[in-house]
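Re-run with default settings, no changes from the original entry. Doing this only to confirm the output is reproducible before filing.
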Amino acid sequence: MGTRYLLALFLVLLALAFEVQGTHEPQEDEAASTPLLTKVQESLLSYWDSAKTAAQDLYKKTSLTTVDEKIRDMYSKSTAAVSTYAEILTDQFLSLLKGDS
């Protein structure tokens, strides 16, 4: 598997994993909603649910320990780099506010 394929798969699975879990409740104002809009919404929700289910099934089938280790390693390296640069920017901002040279 190529790195680009793994990254694309990771991003798709990440987007599906962070989906907000909630129930779809129709609006109480029935006059404002049209039947076409309702059909489109239901269709999109059904497509989204089927895509989410397919991605979850794919993840369960391909849950390899090496892939999980690589993803964890990429996450730890990227968070370490981001936190380092955030600390540097914070120090620069504080020294700018204090007026130290």
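Residues 66 and 72 are 10 Å apart (CA to CA). Helices lie at 3-17, 35-61, 65-98.
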